[in-house]
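Structure request: L-ectoine synthase, Roseinatronobacter monicus.
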Amino acid sequence: MIVRDLHEVKHTDRRVKDQQWESVRMLLADDGMGFSFHITTIAAGSEHTFHYKNHFESVYCISGEGSIEDLATGTVHELRPGVMYALNLHDKHTLRCRTEMVFACCFNPPVTGKEVHQADGSYALETS
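Returned structure:
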């Protein structure tokens, strides 16, 4: 059984951040669960374009307000607490945060914790 406290994990190398977001990786590939689980906080007023070509992601909004745009179709979906989205087609998307937003996110395959976003908004696929 794996038990982790978000408040403790925030003070380890499982907390990754830049100026507009932070992600606390509660589960990573080396935990052997077949997915990774993150609590991600994104700054108010920020906009991010991602394209996880090598990963599937599901995201549950815990707090905040914003929107996600499917860049293939132009469809915009409002995000608020209780709304979930899943990038089941490796959907290229833009996330816009009107307020600070907190999400619970799962990635498959799991991330290792060492990934950085590439220029196209994706993570490279770890092969080892």
